[in-house]
Specification:
63% of the residues lie in helices and 0% in strands. By secondary structure, the protein is mainly alpha-helical. The chain has one domain. Helix 1 packs antiparallel against helix 2. The model has no long low-confidence stretch (mean pLDDT 86).
C-alpha cells in the first residue's frame, strides 16, 4: 500500500488531473484513490492560496494604498 500511496500523492502534488491518477492506479472510484492520497501541508497551503487568489484577488494586492 505504501508504494501506491506515494505514487498517488506525488502525481497529485505534481498537478496531474485526479481522473488521470485514478486511471493510472486502476481504481474504479475517486473515493478509493482519495484514500491513498496523503498530500503535504505545503501542498494544501498552495491550493488554499490559489483558491483565495481566484476568489478575492484584491486581498493579494502588493500595493499598500
Amino acid at each position: 500500500m505504501r508504494q501506491v500511496s506515494c505514487r498517488v500523492t506525488h502525481l497529485i502534488e505534481f498537478g496531474y488531473p485526479a481522473l488521470f491518477v485514478q486511471q493510472q492506479v486502476g481504481h474504479a472510484y475517486a473515493s478509493t484513490t482519495a484514500g491513498y492520497t496523503g498530500v503535504s501541508d505545503e501542498y494544501r497551503n498552495r491550493l488554499m492560496e490559489k483558491a483565495l487568489r481566484a476568489y478575492a484577488p484584491d486581498l493579494w494586492n502588493e500595493d499598500p494604498t
